[in-house]
Amino acid sequence: MRLRLPCVNRVGLIHDITQCLAKRQVNIVSLEVEQGNVFLECPYLEQEREEALIHALRKIGGVYRVETIALMPSKERTEQLNAILGSVQDGILTVNQDYLLTQCNMAAVRILRLSLASVMGQPIDDSLAGNLFVQETLRTGKSFRNREVFVDSKGGYCIVSTLPLRNRQEEVVGAVAVVRDIREVRELVHKITASRPVTFADIPFTSTAMARVVEQARLYARSDSTVLICGETGTGKELFARALHSGSSRAQAAFVPVNCAAIPETLLESELFGYEEGAFTGAVKGGKPGLFELANEGTLFLDEIGEMSVHLQAKLLRTLQDRRVRRVGSSREIAINVRIISATNRDLEKQVAGGLFREDLYYRLNVIPLFLPPLRERQEDIRLLAEYFLKRFAGKLQRPVQGFTPAALERLQYYDWPGNVRELENVVERAVNLVEGTAVEERHILLGRRPPSRQIQVPDVRFETYQTLHERLAQVEKIILRETVKRFGSARRVGSVLGLSHTAVLKKLRKYKLNQPHQANDG
Questions:
Q1: What is the DSSP letter of 285?
Q2: Which of 95, 196, 228, 303 is most exposed, with the fewest beta carbons within 10 Å of its own?
Q3: E-strand stretches of 273-399
Q4: What CA dihedral angle connects 183, 186, 191 and 196, to 10 degrees?
Q5: What PROSITE patterns does this protein map onto (predicted)?
């Protein structure tokens, strides 16, 4: 039975209440006094005795009324505190001046990998107290904020903040430590800062060559094996790496890209593996996590892997084999769970043969190879990509451009695109900046180098053969058909370029006994 007695604050009130209870032989389990209220907790009474006691308490001078309550104030506060501590994702621990652990929520147990039954009410472990800055806070009374620390019980890093607890005399009587799992912090940062994920649906194509590659990549995304993406500069290797990540079971974790060619060798090691405070001149205070740690549970994309030095190749191989990293200047190893996707525009097999790339690392990276075709081998995609980029840049630059003239499209089709999709994107952006009307014309297409000649080689006139004009024109027609088929590879495309029907092209090819395009290219 729990009661609340709203009352006046007078001398002897508590004495009168206890006398009333003693007279009726009712024990007091607990009694709490707050301003204007007395709270009583008594053993369970039969209804008749309970009603008689309440009636007697109401007659005590200064007692306004008697109410039944569910919980005593201290118990209610404890329940509220436990609910709060249990609802937060951060670990919270409190330690008194004797280093006894007085509070420890389940988040702290999970993050620090503790056993709640074995630590509550026990002295905090010296190593843990040191790791969490608890000793320093109790000794100096200073608070620490967002310090990255290595916790032995966890075998990894956490973010820790501390606050001293003081009494009315401003003496330090305890400390509170707030612990955050560094992976959860990184996941939160990733959710806030990450750009829109790239999926395979975001890769525009119509060619059969790209259809095969995308189909392969969709299968590879379901695996957790290492992928090596090979292709010329500008073919979209990072785009595919991001799509592989988005299609994998790691999609909710971080995708961390690093260009191995863009970072000097002296810095790349510390960027990949991180470093401890004081590891070298200029090291950030408190140290810094490496990209392997930032990508933990997610995907690390190593672009231009062929540019990595042999020294770093050895350390990367060790990391891939052991699934553990060691920060520069540290003796501790950290377990990681990262999927590696690497990319290169070099022939790594030639580099292995020349001693420029480790053979064992090559085979470790080349578990699943993915080859991206250059743009010149998928010409069917040029128009689609050009229109895709045109729409994007017209909106971005707020230009009323709606399409290409036939001559502009022909100029794009006849170029061999050494810079591949990236070069095409740049050419279209440049054209959108130059155009004044609603259509991109041939003069707006500024290419990096002259497109290959489209001039047909006319056969020499040899009078001794006594050819008629019809026979000589047939020779030229045969050359035109052969070169156009070689260029466009589709009877429908050839017909479109030459102004002939699909069936007319096929008849002429049979007439001159030329190889006919594959039917798959005519859809």
A1: T
A2: 196
A3: 274-275, 288-289, 299-303, 324-325, 334-335, 339-344, 368-371
A4: -110
A5: ACT, SIGMA54_INTERACT_1, SIGMA54_INTERACT_2, SIGMA54_INTERACT_3, SIGMA54_INTERACT_4
Calculate the CA dihedral of residues 81, 84, 86, 90 and round it to 10 degrees: -120
* Both structure tokens of 375: 């743009």
Structure-token match 């059969």, residue found: 208
Measured in whole angstroms, the distance separating CA 138 from the mean position of its chain's CA atoms is 38
- Rounded Cα–Cα distance for residues 429 and 389 (Å): 7
Helices 469-488, 491-498: inter-axial angle, 10-degree rounding: 130
Q: Distance between CA atoms of 227 and 216, rounded to whole angstroms?
A: 12
Alpha-helical runs (H) found in 39-180: 47-58, 73-87, 106-112, 116-119, 126-131, 134-140
pLDDT tens per residue across span 107-154: 888 888 887 766 777 888 877 777 788 888 998 999 998 887 878 777
Handedness of CA 395, 399, 401, 407 (dihedral sign): negative
- pTM passes above 0.70: no
Q: Which tokens hold the place of 348?
A: 């790594």
CB 377, CB 209: distance < 8 Å: yes
